[in-house]
Amino acid sequence: MAAMQVNLLFAALFVFINVFSAGHRLSFLLASALTIGFFQQYVFDIAAWSELSAQPLYLLVVAFTVLAFDDRRFGDGFIPGILRLGAVLGALLAAVLYLYPEEMCIYGLAAATAALLAIGQRGSRGRALFGVAGLGLGACVAVLLGLLFWNGTLQFVVRQLTNRAANPPDWWKYFSAYLFGGEANYLGILANPASDYRHIVAAVFSLPVESMIAGLGLHFLLPTASWPVVPALIWKLALYGFLAVLIKAAAGGVARIWRTIPAGNAARMTAACAAGCVVPFVIFLTGNYWAAGKGLSMAAPLLFLLVTTPLVANPDVVKAGLVGCLAIYAFAFAHLALGLLRPLLITQFAGAGVPGLPTAAALVNHQKAGLDWNYQRWAAEIQGCNGVYIAVENPFMMQLLRRAAAELRVPWASAALVWPGDNDPYLPEGWQNFGCFVSESSMPTRRVRKLIWVAKDRSTFEYLEGQLGVLEIGTKLAAGVSSDGAYGLESYMGDTLRWTSEVAHFEAPNNPAAPSKILRLELWPMPLSSNALKVTVNGETVYNGAIPADTLAMSLGDFVAQDKLSIEMQTNAITHFPNDPRALGVAIRTLRLGKSIESR
C-alpha cells in the first residue's frame, strides 16, 4: 500500500512538470504534499487498495488527454504519433478498468472535458484529428483488454453503480462524518425544531467554514469541543478569512489562465480538474453521502491541482499576489506537515485526541476495547459446535470468526456475509440446526445449545446466568443492551453522568429462568425545564409522576416471563443549557436492573 501511495508522487510530478511546465523543486514540494497529505492518508487508512493503486493512473489519463492536443508532443509523424498515444492511453485505461473502474465517472468526465475544450477551441483545433484518433485508439485497446475479464471490469462497473445507487450504504456516518464539520452535530441542530436561536445561529455560522475546511482536507485545523468559546470563535473567523483568500487566489488564477491562454495545456487541465470536482457535489445532492465522500477522496488530486495552479502556472499570466500565494503555500504545507507527522500522530499518545484524522485512534478505541480478541478462548468453544451462527456487528471480528470457523472445519452462517449492509447473507442448508450462537451484543431469538460471547465485558452474560445480582444499563455500555435517545457517557463530580433526550429507550435481555425483578433509577440533581417523568416497561407504565429526587425503585414482577425488557423514559419538557446545543431530558446517575428487591 505504501508503494501504491508513492506512485502518486511520480504521476503528480509528471503533471506539474509536463502539463504546467513548473520547476522541478516546486513540483517535488507540491507532489509530496499531495502524496502524503490528508486525502491519501484517508484512502490508505480505509484500506481502499484499488483506489490507492488506480489514482496515479487516472491522473495520467487526464494528463495524456490534455497533452494529446499539444503540438509539441508526439511529433514523430501522424501515424507513429497516434500509435504511441493510443498505446500509452490504452495501457493506462486498461489498467484502471482492472484496478478500479468506478473512478471513471470522475476522471472520465475530466478527460472528456479537456478533449471537448480542445476540439472546440481555434488554437488547438489543428490537432483535433490527431488527439481524437489517439484517444479513440486507446479507448478501443482498453475495451478489448477489458473483454478478457468482462465480469470483473466493464460488467462490474454497471453492477456496482446500479447496486450502490439503489442501495446506498450508511458507511458515511463513520467514514465521512468529518465533512460535516467538527464535533458538534450542526445538522441535527438545524433539523431540530426545538433548537433555540442561539444554537441555530452557532450552527449556521460554524457549519459552512468547518465543512469547507474539511472538504479541503484540513479538518485537523478545526477547533475541538474543548476550546473555550471566544478562542474558538476567533479561530473560525480566521479560517473564514483564510478560505476567502485561498478561493479568490485559486479561482482568480484559473480564470486568468482561461482568459489569456485558453488553448494551452494549463487551461485544459484546470477545466478537467473543475469538471471532476463537480461530480462528488452532484452525488451529494442526490443524498448518497457515502458515494459523495468517497468521490471527494477520488477527486482529491484534481482538487489539489486546482487549488495550487497559481503557484505552478506561468507567472506572467497568473498573478495571485503575495497574500494569495501565502494562502496557497499554507494549504500545501498543511498537507505536507500532516504527512511528515503521521508516524507520531498514529500513536495513542499524540493522535488519539486529534479530531477528524483517519489516523486518530479515538474513533476505534472503544470498538477495539469492547471485544475479546483472545482467539484461543472462543476458538476452543467453537470447535465443539456442530455449526455456528455468527451475529456480530464489527466487520473485523466477523472476518476473524469466519476464518476461525473455516480453519476449524465448523460450518458457519451469518446474516451479513462480510460487511454490514451487504445484501447476500450466507445461510447454508441446515443452518437452523446449528447449536452455537456467536455474538458481542445480541441474544439468540431461538433456543441454542451454547451462546459464545466475544465481548470483553461479560457482565450481561453473567447477569443473565445469575452469577451477578445487578446490571447497570444506564451509565455503562453493557453488551447486549441497546439505547436510543440517550447521549454519550460524561464524567461529572468524580462519577458518570448520561443525559437522555426528551424520550429515551433502553432495551435489555431478560432470562425467565433468572429474571430481573427490580429497576432502580437515580438522577443527578439538575435545573430542568421538565417537572414530570414517565417510565414504561414493555409498553406498560411503571412510574408516572414528579422528577424523583431520590432513588426510584420500580417492580418488574409483571415481566419476569418475558425475554426482553424495553424501557422508555419520557419527560414533559426539553431542557437547554447555555453553550450546549443538545435537547436534554434527565441526567441519569444509575439505571440498574436487579435480580431481587434487595439488589442495589
Written account of the structure:
- Helix 6 packs across helix 13.
- The strands form 3 sheets. Strands 5, 6, 7, 8, 9, 10, 11, 12 and 15 form a 9-stranded antiparallel sheet that branches. A 4-stranded parallel sheet has the order 2-1-3-4, covered by helices on one side.
- The chain is an alpha+beta fold.
- It folds into 3 domains: 342 residues, no CATH class; 87 residues; 126 residues, Sandwich (Jelly Rolls), CATH 2.60.120.
- The protein starts with a helix and ends in a 6-residue tail after the last strand.
- The protein is 50% helix and 15% strand.
- It has 21 helices and 15 strands.
Task: List key phrases describing it.
600 residues, Jelly Rolls, 21 helices
Brief digest:
With 600 residues, the chain is of the alpha+beta class. The protein has 21 helices and 15 strands. The strands form three sheets. Strands 5, 6, 7, 8, 9, 10, 11, 12 and 15 form a nine-stranded antiparallel β-sheet that branches.
Biggest sheet statistics: 9 strands, antiparallel
| Helix proportion range | 40-55%
Give the oligomeric state: single chain
- Regions with little confidence, pLDDT below 50 for 5+ residues: 418-423
Count of separate structural domains: 3
Count of DSSP helices? 21
Name the shape in a single word: globular
Classification by helices and strands: alpha+beta
Q: Roughly what fraction of the amino acids lie in strands?
A: 15-25%
- Number of E strands: 15
Distance between the termini: 53 Å
Radius of gyration: 29 Å
The residue-averaged pLDDT reads: 86
